[in-house]
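Lab channel / #folding
Pinned by the channel admin:
"Please post every new chain as: sequence first, then the structure tokens as a reply. Keep commentary short and put observations after the output so the thread stays searchable."

First post following the new format, from NK:
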Amino acid sequence: MPQEFRFLLLPGFSAIGFISAIEPLRVANRFRPGLYHWQVLSMDGGPVPASNGMSVNADAALGPLPAGCTLLVVAGFEPLKHYGGALQQWLRRLGREEGVLGGIDTGAFVLAKAGLLEGYRASLHWEALEAFKELFPAIATTGELFEIDRARITCAGGTASIDLMLDLIARAHGSELAIQVSEQFVLGRIRPPKDHQRMQIAARYGTANKKLVQVIGEMEKHTEPPLTTLELASSIKVTRRQLERLFRLHLNETPSNFYLGLRLDKARQLLRQTDMSVTEISVACGFELPSYFARRYKGRFGKSPREDRR
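Reply from TO:
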């Protein structure tokens, strides 16, 4: 019997995350016919628009799944926008059965909202990670490409979906088949889950200076509350003046302005991916005064936080 997969697409889902998950199954069947069978689901059985504007037809609506089936929820920028009672009841019923539940890209939000990730590790797209932590602080999250934790599967989406499916294929049918499938996608290698989702700091900012890379890492880890410039300098064992010189030389920026930009970028992610109030987001990003936060936010993005949420 083929292994059954169901892909629940939520409006605004990530097309690349979905396609990257389904194509390895297709190619595996090409080499060994009949290994996998899948269907696309939507909440009402109708077509589902992706975030890029394309629309995908569904095979069925929410309903019973075959025994041992793996369900993967595929979401996008607003994973909880269409979350409601019917979806919650359906997911919780599946959670009581013996199938595997998973989320691609931000699909982990939906599983967590239904209470189905408690006690499990979860991975999701790096851009949504901070918002997820704010909403579900009790759930253990990682920055890995994907997590397979017993009957729960979560994945960062994008091309990481290929890596997830190759891992599942290798577990079920051996690494030789996984390599055959991988080569069809012209991949140089199969990435392990611990590979980084994002480019390393040095590559992102075009610098090889180890102290600068280290201090940016400290900034990214400490947004609530933010560290002082003196504390940042101390963390890499330089003086405040030396730290300012490093930023000016390599980034043409001051440490404080660069740090402010990181915190405002995090605020925008929380604003767009959670229902937290502007005041709560202000506090979560290290701003004591909401008025100061709103002023700096508008200065960076051209809109106030409330305008940007609409």
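NK: The first helix runs from residue 15 to 31.
TO: also worth noting, The longest strand covers residues 3-9.
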